[in-house]
Design a protein that fits this description.
Distance between the termini: 71 Å
Structural class: alpha+beta
CATH topology of the largest domain: Heat Shock Protein 90
CATH superfamily of the largest domain: Histidine kinase-like ATPase, C-terminal domain
Bound molecules: adenosine-5'-diphosphate
Strand content: 15-25%
CATH architecture of the largest domain: 2-Layer Sandwich
Oligomer: single chain
Number of domains: 4
Number of helices: 13
Low-confidence stretches: none
Radius of gyration: 38 Å
Order of helices and strands: HHHEEHHEEEHHHEHEEHEEHHHEE
CATH class of the largest domain: Alpha Beta
Number of strands: 12
Largest sheet: 5 strands, antiparallel
Helix content: 40-55%
């Protein structure tokens, strides 16, 4: 019987009874039969209800008609759910086994950031509590940066914090969203790595400071000698010029290293003030300065500025990045190349772009250009007096102004350096 069809037998019985009751003039019989049918239906509904709430029990009766169809469906869902629950349990226990002896602390969190599971090593990192299960992550690691990070829910990059209850331990937290609103948290202790990189940076800063004074003294001697160069023998003239040139180069390197270390220090982050900047004025001043250099090299500089667009950022840092990008465009492109400067809207952001039609940069270098001292090793670059710190400074300056840096380049066609500022921040 096709159980999707209305119960034909039932309709047949009712019709036959009605006909018999009418024929024998016995309405009472019809009433009794209808009540019996209703009770039978009610009993089937009760049996279905019992199945729904105690699905592991056997059905009370053999269902007919539509009820058989409903029972069949319920049974199918129940079997599917049982299988799903079983396989979930298996996956969950496999997951626990795999992460139990994982060298890093691993926590499984629910959507309220409460701990559902943790591996034993996690206790070393988490605040001392008698019970971890069901505790909020923010109780176990109370830190304002973590609170803000969880509020924003942008887990594309890990968050780094210093453990509040265990001084001088620096941890990195990587959140991985799982199905069912669960989140896997993997914690790494990066104290040693951070301290090493900090001491390397401190070393560079200290050396730079120490070198600054002797270099100023050298420069103090080299400059007057250079202005009186005609009084010296030709072999001394060459030596004086070289000393002056190399001292200047070292001074530039030291200055850039000090700028970079200031930008990287936490103090700088706290001291940087943001204000509304007249970008037209700032860019025009930078371009005027750059044109003095470009006059000797024959570079053509074109400027396209939307005057209405002001920027909320730090003017000293913005000038620093504009100068660096402009200088690079002149320094790293052949003579007489074209340079275009744009300040405009780009989608939902504001963009400062420096574009050139120079030799371009091969794709393998692009991701490394903002590393300290990274230079594309072409013979042209080696002789142009660069330090390899310019783009690193640009990247850090942008970070302090809530901007993002992007480099696009094609060998033989030129390069484009894009500083993107989110409109929401302005
Ligand atoms: P540098 O002091 O050498 O200019 P940067 O960090 O500013 O250091 O730049 C890193 C490298 O990127 C440069 O050495 C150069 O090879 C490459 N570069 C930067 N700007 C350009 C450009 N406009 N065109 C081609 N190469 C560039």
């Amino acid at each position: 019987m096709n159980t999707n069809q209305p119960d034909v037998r039932l309709v047949g019985i009712i019709l036959a009874c009605s006909f018999a009751a009418y024929y024998f003039e016995q309405i009472l019989i019809l009433l009794v039969i209808i009540i019996a049918i209703l009770m039978w239906h009610y009993y089937q509904i009760y049996a279905i209800h019992r199945l729904l709430y105690q699905s592991d029990k056997k059905p009370l009766i053999l269902f007919y008609g539509l009820f058989a169809e409903i029972y069949l469906r319920i049974n199918q869902y129940y079997l599917y759910w049982k299988h799903y629950r079983h396989s979930r349990r298996r996956i969950y226990s496999r997951f626990q086994q795999s992460f139990k002896y994982f060298p890093n602390p691993v926590l499984l969190l629910d959507k309220q950031w409460q701990v559902k599971w943790y591996n034993p090593i996690s206790k070393k990192i988490l605040a001392n509590e008698t019970q971890y299960h069901g505790q909020s992550l923010l109780t176990l690691i109370p830190h304002p940066v973590l609170t803000e990070y969880l509020r924003e829910k942008n887990f594309s990059k890990p968050v780094v914090i210093e453990l509040p209850h265990k001084q001088q331990i620096i941890i990195e937290l990587q959140f991985v969203s799982l199905i069912n609103d669960e989140t896997l948290l993997i914690i790494s202790d990066i104290t040693d790595k951070t301290n090493l990189s900090r001491s390397q940076k401190d070393f560079i800063t200290n050396v730079s400071h120490e070198l600054k004074t002797p270099l100023t003294v050298l420069m103090g001697f080299a400059e007057p000698m250079l202005s009186e160069i005609g009084q010296f023998d030709p072999q001394w003239q060459y030596a004086i010029k070289t000393i002056h040139q190399q001292t200047q180069k070292m001074q530039q390197l030291i200055d850039e290293l000090l700028v970079l270390s200031r930008l990287e220090s936490q103090d700088a982050v706290e001291k940087i003030e943001l204000q509304s900047i007249d970008m037209k004025l700032l860019i025009e001043q930078a371009v005027d300065d750059a044109k003095l250099i470009a006059a000797n090299t024959g570079h053509q500089i074109e400027v396209d500025i939307d005057e209405q667009l002001t920027l909320h950022a730090n003017p000293v840092l913005i000038r620093l990045l504009v100068d660096n990008l402009l200088r690079n465009a002149i320094k790293h492109t052949p003579e007489s190349c074209h340079i275009w400067i744009y300040w405009d809207k780009c989608g939902s952001a504001l963009c400062f772009i420096v574009k050139d039609n120079g030799e371009g940069i091969a794709p393998r270098h692009l991701s490394r250009l903002t590393e300290r001292f990274y230079r594309v090793d072409s013979s042209r670059n080696r002789n142009n007096g660069g330090t390899g710190l310019g783009l690193s400074i640009v990247k850090h300056a942008l970070k302090h102004c809530n901007g993002e840096f992007e480099i696009q380049s094609e060998v033989g066609r030129g390069s484009e350096f894009i500083c993107r500022f989110n409109l929401l921040d302005n």
